[in-house]
Amino acid sequence: MKRLGVPPEYHDELITRSLVALRGWAGMIRQFEERPDRAPVEAVPARLADFLALRLVLDQVAAEWAAGRLGRASDLPGLWTELRDRYPPRRGPGSVARAYLLYQVSQLLGLSAHDIWALDENELLGFESAIAEFDGVVRRRIFHLAYERRHRIEVLDGLASHVAVASLPSSERPLVQAIFCIDERCESFRRYLEEMGPRYETFGTAGFFAVPMYYRGIDDWHATPLCPIVMRPEHTVLEVPQDSARASHHLRQSIRRRLGNSPEACRAAAEHFFAGEFLLFLTAQSLRCRWSHALYVHG
Asked: How far apart, in whole angstroms, are the C-alpha atoms of residue 188 and residue 202?
């Protein structure tokens, strides 16, 4: 921070801007740091502090390069102060922009110029404050609530219209009771069973069935958490071969490991092969030149 010449009161803003400059990277590295058990293949020793340090180093290099083009590579603090004084923070909108914004909102609300003119100073400031607080985040939240409300009404209307034609629940003991995950991909299975008759009942529950665990299949290289992401399992379930199949299992694992390493081995062998061929070609060319020179001299 000192090398960048950033005053202490701007440190938090610089750190935030540096972290979010590459969208998604800071969050991904944070997940690797806090939940390495959820890495898809292999846990990476990543830390958010290291990522921030690397970003700040890159910011420093970029700032020094830009300052060097101005002939002030060693004076980043002075350049920061000069740029801050030359380009001060933007102030609020001017009177024309304020009037135009009030005009636009008034048109949407059906207010006339006489209505706006009748407002006293405090009412006008409150009106402008309400407009300023209705920013993009608030608008997106309202749009999201409206979308959910419409979806909820459509679902409830559909259920209400289905009540009139639906059969009454049977008083007999259910013939089949099945529990499925609450995931929507299981809804088709549930509907299929329930349409077979009133004595077929299905229930929904969380897919991990209240048993958070790590699970490693017989051919998996690492365990996978089977539970909601907010939970961290304390137990691991391993699938192991039967005693009579251990030898074939170890043989299959050895073959899979060799096949997995074969692309890297083939690439390395190809590199060594072409390097050897190139050296052999250079050696042959050198010997041919020497033999030609010797034959020329002795001839």
From this structure: 11
Burial grade of 193 (CB within 10 A; 0-12, 13-18, 19 or more): middle
Q: Collect all residues with Cβ–Cβ distance below 8 Å to 229 and sequence separation of at least 6.
A: 35, 38
Tell me which residue of 288, 211, 219, 274 sits closest to 249, measured CA to CA. Answer: 219
Cα gap 181→208, rounded to integer Å? 8
Q: How far is CA 104 from the centre of its chain?
A: 38
Cα 222 to Cα 254: distance, rounded to the nearest angstrom: 16
Cα 25 from Cα 35, distance rounded (Å): 15
Give the helix/strand (H/E) hosting 205.
strand 200-205
Handedness of CA 205, 211, 215, 218 (dihedral sign): negative
The single-letter code of the amino acid at 150 is R
Residue 217, C-beta contacts closer than 8 angstroms, at least 6 positions apart: 239
State yes or no: pLDDT of 222 exceeds 60.
yes
The SS3 assignment for 225 reads: strand
- Residues 226 and 80: their CA atoms lie apart, in Å, by 51
Amino acid at 180: F
- Percent of the chain scoring above 90 in pLDDT: 18
DSSP one-letter code for 16: H
- Distances 228 to 78, 206, 207, 210 between C-alpha atoms, Å: 51, 9, 9, 10
What is the pTM for the complete model shown?
0.49
Tokens 């629940």 identify what position? 169
Tell me: the pLDDT tens digits for 159-179?
A: 888 776 666 666 788 999 999
Tokens 């096949």 sit on residue: 259
Place of tokens 């990476």: 44
| Long-range CB contacts (within 8 A, 24+) of 13-16 | 14/59, 15/52
pLDDT band at 296 (very low <50, low <70, confident <90, very high): very low
176-181 vs 200-205, strand pairing mode? parallel
